[in-house]
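step=encode ok
step=design start
structure_in=
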C-alpha cells in the first residue's frame, strides 16, 4: 500500500486512479466527523478554503489543491510530498 489519501467528495472520480496506484482512498464525507489522523495526504478541489466547514482543521498531512489537475497530476503531487 502506497499510503492513505483523503479526497474531497467532488473528486471521487480520482479514487479509482489513485487506488490503482496502490493508495487507500477515503472520501472526506466518510471521515468528516472524525480526525484526519492517519492520512498521508488530503486532496481538495480548492472551491472552498474551508473544506470541512471547520475553521481550524487539524492535520499533519499535506493538503493538495487539485483545482484544474488531472488524476495523474494529483498522483505526481502526492508522490512529491510523500518523498
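sequence_out=
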Amino acid at each position: 500500500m502506497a499510503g492513505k489519501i483523503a479526497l474531497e467528495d467532488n473528486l471521487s472520480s480520482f479514487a479509482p486512479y489513485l487506488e490503482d496506484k496502490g493508495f487507500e482512498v477515503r472520501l472526506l464525507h466518510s471521515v468528516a466527523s472524525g480526525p484526519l489522523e492517519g492520512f498521508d495526504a488530503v486532496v481538495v478541489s480548492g472551491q472552498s478554503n474551508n473544506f470541512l466547514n471547520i475553521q481550524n482543521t487539524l492535520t499533519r498531512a499535506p493538503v493538495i489543491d487539485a483545482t484544474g489537475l488531472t488524476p495523474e497530476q494529483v498522483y505526481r503531487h502526492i508522490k512529491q510530498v510523500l518523498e
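step=design ok
step=annotate ok -> The longest helix spans residues 71-82.
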